[in-house]
Structure formats: C-alpha cells, structure tokens
Design a protein that fits this description.
single chain, alpha+beta, Thiol Ester Dehydrase, Chain A, five-stranded antiparallel β-sheet, about 25% helix
C-alpha cells in the first residue's frame, strides 16, 4: 500500500504521513529499534500533524493531551529501514478522540500499529472540553 505524498492527497484520505529519521541511539542490544522508541515516533508524527493543521487550537487555549497509548508490534525496525508514520482520526467522542497510526516503510511493510486516545483540555480551567469541530470533521 502506497501512502499519499502530497498534502492535498493527505487531506483527501484524512491521513497524515511523515518520515522518521532513525538514530543509532534508537537501537537496542539486538540491533533493532527498542520498543519504547516507537512511542517517540508516534509523538513526532502527532506533533507535526498538530503543528501543521491544529496550531490554532493551542492558540485558543485548548490543549490536546495523551490519555492512553497502545502499540502492537508487527515487525522489527533496523537502522537500515526507511520509516514513516501515518496517522488519522479513527474515533471521535465527546471530549476525546483516537488517533490511529501505522509505522511503515512507505511501501507494504507495517512495523507496528498504534492508537492514542487524545483528550481536549481547557488550558485555564484544566478540565476536559468538547472536541472542536475541526477535529470532528476528520473522524
């Protein structure tokens, strides 16, 4: 499965994809990326997605924080692999939504699948608020 290379195609498919730069320090004793690092890759994609499409929410005082994270490991990543992360809104609730992810090689290999439950928080009151319409429309 090929992933869309342009922003127009990303928006049409409601997926956001970004490449990940592997570091030697990501590797464990066995020569593959340590399982904890996968969550760093998810964070990198999530931050890029929010900066590109949802910065105004932060400017309006709505913080989006991780409430839960899970990852299913499918295939080990080594230093020689090309790695990208694709993310999309897979569920929208009242004050939270799920981002689903594929960590992949830009071709057919899926290294891992993951989900994070994101909670919308009022930055002043420190309480959950409704998921903004802009995010709802992506789900």
């Amino acid at each position: 499965m090929k992933y869309p290379p342009t922003i127009k195609e990303k928006l049409m498919t409601k997926r956001y994809s970004t490449s990940i730069d592997l570091r030697f320090s990501d590797l464990d004793l066995y020569g593959h990326v340590n399982s904890a690092i996968y969550f760093t890759y998810l964070e990198t994609a999530r931050v890029k997605l929010f900066m590109e499409f949802f910065q105004e929410l932060t400017d309006q005082g709505i913080f989006i924080v991780v409430g839960r994270a899970e990852c299913d490991y499918k295939y080990p990543i080594t230093l020689k692999d090309t790695v990208a992360v694709s993310a999309w809104v897979s569920r929208v609730g009242t004050t939270s939504f799920d981002l689903s992810y594929d960590i992949h090689d830009n071709n057919e290999r899926i290294f891992a699948t993951a989900v994070t439950t994101m909670v919308c928080i009022d930055s002043v009151k420190k309480k959950p608020v409704a998921v903004p319409e802009r995010l709802r429309s992506m789900g």
